Amino acid sequence: MDRFRELQVFVKVAEEGGFAAAARALAMSPPAVTRAVSALEDRLQSRLLVRTTRTVRLTESGRRLLEDGRSVLSALEEAEDQARGARQVPRGHLRITAPALFGCYVVAPALGAFLQAHDDVTAETLFVDRVVNVIEEGLDVAVRIGELPDSSLSAIRVGGVCRVVAGAPSYFEAHGTPAHPSDLHAHHLINPLAFGRKVAWSFRDDGRNLLIEAPSRLSLNTNDAILELMRRGWGISRLLSYQVAPGVAQGSLRTVLDAYRPPPVPVHIVHPEGRIASAKVRAFVDFMVEELRQNEILRMQG
């Protein structure tokens, strides 16, 4: 089996999470898939996959080869297309990840518009409130909110979002509106577990960092649940500006303590293919950069 075929088989095993699934996707027998990966490991003299009875897991060498291998295979496919005179149009399947509510409010509408413009592209999403390993989970593009760790992923900053304190107008009518972060001690606080198991909210006061630690009777692990209780007037919480934006626009929520907001949190689009990204990835990234930089949610920092 040639080296490119071995690489193709390895990439498919890593993406599918198993030899049998890769065999089905490649229309090969499971023994042939196993032989191809073993031959690749023998030639490289490096263990790429750790096999268990049910799944496979990438080693560190495997993760590096998966990233580089995808780029090599993509470049080979496009080179062959150019040699055949094929037009470089976006085509194929895209896998995209983003935080759950950001995906719902921002990414999904943009993705729908992109697919309407590109008939040869299909897509699926993974909207979850955790940092997804793009390489291990076979994703093409990710939207990341927060500072990025050093990595080999290509990243483009598209805007920022702020941490905001918000609640329902009915809550503030009943309990008063905090005028300073220190007033939060007297309010019903809903703690988002994503930021820790206790209320420890940072602010900026007269150019200085201010940390407010306060008791909370309720901690919730999903932002949907927090938003629902806020809309019902149970209490106030601190979320990211895009999460409360629809409620603010509808009048069911309003923000407070805006003068004390900390600096914005950056939003990036990241992808693993670098300068030789496939046509579908290049087109989608370019489209999303333009869409997100114009999106009002990413400029809700006032």
Fold and architecture overview:
It is a single chain. This protein is 40% helix and 25% strand. It is built from 9 helices and 14 strands. It has helices at residues 3-16, 19-26, 30-44, 60-84, 100-117, 169-175, 223-231, 241-250, 279-293, and strands at 49-51, 56-58, 92-98, 121-127, 141-145, 154-161, 163-167, 189-192, 199-205, 208-214, 218-220, 236-240, 254-256, 265-271. A 5-stranded mixed sheet has the order 4-3-5-14-6, covered by helices on one side. The protein has a 5-stranded mixed sheet with strand order 11-8-12-7-13. Strands 1-2 form a two-stranded antiparallel sheet. Strand 1 and strand 2 form a beta hairpin. Helix 1 crosses helix 3 (30-44) and helix 2 (19-26) packs across helix 3 (30-44). The longest helix has 25 residues, at 60-84. The mean pLDDT is 87.
Determine the strand fraction and express it as a percent band. Answer: 15-25%
Secondary-structure-derived class:
alpha/beta
Assembly status? single chain
Shape, please?
Answer: elongated
Distance between the termini: 60 Å
Number of helices: 9
Short synopsis of the structure:
The protein has helices spanning 3-16, 19-26, 30-44, 60-84, 100-117, 169-175, 223-231, 241-250, 279-293; strands at residues 49-51, 56-58, 92-98, 121-127, 141-145, 154-161, 163-167, 189-192, 199-205, 208-214, 218-220, 236-240, 254-256, 265-271. By secondary structure, it is of the alpha/beta class. Helix 1 (3-16) packs across helix 2, helix 1 (3-16) packs across helix 4 (60-84) and helix 5 (100-117) packs across helix 9 (279-293).
